[in-house]
Amino acid sequence: MIPVYKPEIGKEEEEEVLKVIRSGWISSASPAVREFEEKFSAYIGRKYGVATSNGTTALHLAVTALGIKEGDEVIVPDLTFISPVNVVLYNRAIPVIVDVEEENWGLDPEKVRKAITNKTKAIIVVHLYGNPAKVSELKEIAEEKGIYLIEDCAEAHGAEYEGKKVGNFGDIACFSFYANKVITTGEGGMCLTDDEGLYEKMQILRDHGMTKEKRYWHEVVGYNYRMTGLQAALGLAQLKKIDKFIERKREIARLYQELLEDVVTVQKDPPNGKSIFWLFSILTEKRDELAEYLAKNDVETRKFFYPVHEMPPYRDFAKNDYVVSEKLSKLGLSLPSYLSLSKSETSFISEKIIGFFKGLKHEQWDQH
């Protein structure tokens, strides 16, 4: 079976992790954690980084640090992995679910503008499947309305919008380093910001709410959202390779595009954006049948996320039309796109897809 994804772990990662093990500093107190925070935030272009246990805890840290509380409204996309919606509910705030755009799969700025009320405190924009959303436009809306912008960059490390890396637009930007992300720490996440006050607040909240000046003294209710030294060591080794990894992802995407663009709708760079093609994806009305056919030919795929508004815990928050997210969810299929996927494997997968559609044409002809 050709899997959808598998991490690229080499000798360098082994050596970095062993270095931390031999030092004895394996917990969140490890100097490797601070080094990873500094180097990753510098890579993206932000002043401060706060490493966390995973991408969801990074988002929750951001929401909490910005003071979002019960009764506040936060705009979230209808097509996303569920974390941005759940973290709003953790704080008993209200997720306002808004449709996405067809050209980049991210929040539609005009629909966001219409959804803002006097209770709106923030927008969470998700750069879905490696595609940058229209984040400049969303930042302008947030500044105009005096609300916060949080970027969920979990699937888009190194993607760009208008020449800037995503993660540079929000008051806080959140990343995930789960095993299937462009760079991984196994689990793990990070919050980035340029605001020193937010940085210090997130550090305290992440570390049980304990003050830096007085050990075991807690002035706020906090969380244990810390990253370990072992995770950070893995991340440091991966970070050295990130540009090479992103170029490899784009090479795989270019080959898929070349082979499949006459057969299905293929993922491409959106206007003004540079995608990292986290999981290279296609759109087709025969999505379910194609996925089944590929599985029989030893090719694993992933269907797009379900629209948030359709799932039981979130139906009461559905207040808008979701035409685009419903369409994308029904049509979207992610193909194998891990870094060591060979040209012959990419060609094999593409040939199977082309063969599937040729078979459909023959069936239709026979019926006539």
From TrEMBL:
Broadest EC class assigned to this enzyme: transferase
Gene3D superfamilies: Aspartate Aminotransferase, domain 1, Type I PLP-dependent aspartate aminotransferase-like (Major domain)
Biological processes annotated in GO: polysaccharide biosynthetic process
Keyword Ion transport: no
Cofactor requirements of the protein: pyridoxal 5'-phosphate
Xref: Pfam families: DegT_DnrJ_EryC1 (PF01041)
NAD listed as a keyword: no
Domain of life, source organism: Archaea
Alphabetical list of InterPro entries matching this protein: DegT/StrS_aminotransferase, PyrdxlP-dep_Trfase, PyrdxlP-dep_Trfase_major, PyrdxlP-dep_Trfase_small
Alphabetic keyword roster: Aminotransferase, Pyridoxal phosphate, Transferase
EC number: 2.6.1.50
Molecular function GO labels: glutamine-scyllo-inositol transaminase activity; pyridoxal phosphate binding
Family listed: Belongs to the DegT/DnrJ/EryC1 family.
Protein name: DegT/DnrJ/EryC1/StrS aminotransferase
